Structure formats: C-alpha cells, structure tokens
Amino acid sequence: MAQNTINMPAGFGGLTNYKEEYASKINLKPTHIIVFVFLIILFRISLGVFY
C-alpha cells in the first residue's frame, strides 16, 4: 500500500514575496495621510461655520 503514493513537487513552500511582484506608482507617507485628513476636517468645520 505504501508504494502507491504520489510525490508532488515541493514548489516554493509558501515563500512568495509579493513585494517583488507589484510596485505601486503612488507612495504616500503616513504623515501625508494625517495632514490630508486634518485638512478635510478643517474644511468641513469651515463649511458648518460659514454656511
């Protein structure tokens, strides 16, 4: 019974590095996101005050 086994190739063993496969064209730092959100909040507050 042990002789009827099928050996599959090992492949990558789950060691896939996705950073090499995809590089984004837009790179934003976390500080840019915080400043952008802060500007949106200020804009929203100013709309409530002036209108």
- Shape field: rod-shaped
The arrangement of helices and strands along the chain is H
Radius of gyration, in angstroms, nearest whole number:
26 Å
* Termini gap: 82 Å
Percentage of residues in strands = under 5%
- Major sheet details: none
Number of strands: 0
**Fraction of helical residues:** 40-55%
The average pLDDT value, as a whole number, equals 79
Backbone structural class: mainly alpha
Regions with little confidence, pLDDT below 50 for 5+ residues: none
User: What is the count of DSSP helices, taking H or I runs of 4+ residues?
Assistant: 1
3D architecture notes:
This protein has one helix spanning 30-50. It is mainly alpha-helical and 51 residues long. The chain has a domain at 25-51. The mean pLDDT is 79.
Topology record:
Elements: H1 30-50
Name the descriptors:
single chain, 51 residues, mainly alpha, 1 helix, rod-shaped
Produce a short descriptive summary.
With 51 residues, the chain is an all-alpha fold. Helix content is 41%, strand content 0%. It has 1 helix and no strands.
